[in-house]
Amino acid sequence: MTIRHATSDANGTSPSRLVGSDRVLNVLTELSNYPNGIGLDDMAKVVRSPKATVHRALASLCRAGLASRDGRGHYILGDEFLRMAFSHHESRPDHVRVQPVLVQLADRYGETVHYAVLDSNSIIYRSKVDPTGGSIRLTSTIGGRNPAHCTAIGKLLLSKQLLDLAAVEQWVGERTLPARTSNTLTTPEALHEEFVRIRSVGYATDDEENELGVNCLAVPYYFSSPAVAVGAVSISALVYRTPLSKLVDDVETIRAIVDGRFESTSP
Fold first, then answer.
1. Residues 171-204, buried b or exposed e (16+ Cβ, 10 A)?
2. Which pLDDT tens digit goes with each residue over 242-256?
3. Could you tell me which residues come within 8 angstroms of residue 3 by beta carbon, excluding any fewer than 6 positions away?
4. Do 111 and 40 fall into the same domain?
5. What is this structure's pTM?
6. Residues 32, 132: one domain?
7. pLDDT in tens, 170-187
8. Residue 152, domain CATH
């Protein structure tokens, strides 16, 4: 086992000077770093405290259900801690949970990032983060709508529902889909072909189909199920600043950030 020694906290307090509840919380925090469990001796080394003191902290956590001992006598996070954590996580609305992802993408690409869901023929923006720099920003608003057939998010989410040409034709019905630009796909046949492509690559693009001068790339966002996307995240970029080809070339990084798998290599 590799022992990771605890460092000073945000206030500069070293573990050796922690007392009372602070020490218990420090031990609880360190338990999260050892999903396979850690013994008392090793935990004492990690938090740099006397074994008897660490034992008392662990005993308090066990009584509260926040820690437990496995069959080897190692300490792990308790079921009550996991219940509280997952309950809190699941009760948070999707637009709150996705916000850090939007901020990370906006900072990385210097463009506006949206989270939106599908509502019949439209998408509804649930969250939006503008880049910190740059004087030109998009006019989209939280709660605002755009047609699903000409947006990257809309096409991505529709592609998961309309699996054949007949389904696309039924969705279009008697409507005439508006052409927002000369690039907008407006026929069932063109949309079906686009949906097939989207399903094959796992992302969708908007090549100035909703607004001239703006392109987008969207990837699915899985909220509570790894198989069902409740919405999607898109980077909406000004063409002159970030060409669509750059976003497509970087799609795996974008997906990793949205899925929480991305690890920055910067110092």
1. bbeeeebeebeeebbbebeebbebbeebeeeebb
2. 999 999 999 999 999
3. 42, 45, 46
4. no
5. 0.65
6. no
7. 999 999 999 999 999 999
8. 3.30.450.40
